[in-house]
Model the fold of this input.
Amino acid sequence: MSRTRCDRTPAWAALQAAFNTSGRTFDARVALAHEPNRFEALSQQAPHVFADLSKNLVDAPTEQLLLDLAQQCGLAQHREALFAGEAINNTEQRAVMHWLLRTPVAAAGAVGANPALAALAPELSQVHATLDAMLAYADTVRADASITDVVNIGIGGSDLGPQMAVLALDAFAVKGKRFHFVSNVDGHELDRVLQSVRPQSTLFLIASKTFTTIETMTNAVSAKAWFETQGGTDTARHFAALTTNVAAAQAFGISTTFGFWDWVGGRYSLWSAIGLPLAIAIGGAGFREFLAGAHDMDEHFRTAQLPSNLPVRLGLLDVWYRNFHGFGSRSIAPYHSALRRLPAYLQQLEMESNGKRVDASGASLPFATSPVLWGEPGTNGQHAYFQMLHQGTDVVPVEFVAVKTARHSLPGHHTLLLANVLAQAQALLLGQADAGGHKHFSGNRPSTFFLLDDLTPTSLGALIALQEHRVFVSGSLWGINSFDQWGVELGKVLAKDVQARLLSGHTEGLDASSAGLLRLLRPA
Ligand code: F6P
Done:
């Protein structure tokens, strides 16, 4: 499908005019005081996730212009192409179907179902055959008390997703098993884990979509060598590979394999075999709930009208902030310690997807794309960098994630936690305009508030799918391909050259800085 880039539409010009006249000076405090029903109009209950957008620098006319922009850019058609399994990852000629991984078999015949499912029946049946096998395996491992340690070796999407989700759903995890995540090629990481496990009670999961990633392969070779040196023999029992490249895994010597497909991007692969650590932790039934929560959000994104479509509203706000307000970053503040890896996970999702300077056809873009994403759990962030959020010179939109129900019984803590998250959003909004000098807070600093009733497999699945789709929306309007990642390749190529030079000492052809550092890095 041909897509119209956002800056080439009448709505873009209208948004610029609106920003120049009233958008730049918009005050959310005034709007909240004077617009009846602003909270109701700018908040919504999406599947398993409530979102309040009313503290943002946006009003109904601006939202309408943003919706016009979406309409003029063909967002609905692009969304249709996504859910039809078209090859929208054009630079790699691949479909983008992580959503199919969470589509239940029964969806195919349901009223109002995605019409493309009929043609995708072979893929859907492969998905479920693999899922059934993987979950049966997960439940066997889960029930096997002799396996006490699960070590996931993978990086990027083959690490961040399962790691984030296993931590997030710790309250549901099987007792008596420890989960370790080794991603860095820095041997300190693997070494520390190997010192704490025993070969006869450890399951190594080698997670790599391509089964070629140098960090993962280096760690996998070392883990297997350690296993054999320690007297381990039953590789089929102690190693499993999660990959689209089953042949490479078998050539490596791993016979227990769970596959997936090239139409699942690395940073979208948590729902595939890459989710095996999570499935072992929370069990097959729990993993199906996780998929079901995400599917509910898929259906919301696929079918809801654009004005009441939460991923659409968030993605449009992202464009408004990045391209009109010029905000360069977004801070994620999960007020739940189990969500401590959520910011890192979202960093890859947003920045690897939308950190592009050309459109899908390769033409340079004249406007900004992905913001920088960063954050830490609350309340820790409050005692570190919130100073800058409240009084710094840059405005940084903040996204709070709060969970209504606690799964511990320590008195007082949860009320205090919830009081803090609400108070921070309030302080950003209200400021302290009457105080002078160092005590002055300008206020009117935007934030979005996500609220989950409880942190469960279902609500986590929905929250993650929501974030995936909002990244799709902004990427779609920017006209970019959100599903490739050519920007990571150059460093990989250069690392091979530098590795050879570190061994040989040859510095010919290197820039003077790299040559100087290389000499310092070589052993004496
Ligand atoms: O180098 C970037 C990247 O390709 C990510 O997109 C991906 O999640 C990660 O590397 C790991 O790739 P793989 O799963 O193929 O090892």
Notes: The chain has a mean pLDDT of 97.
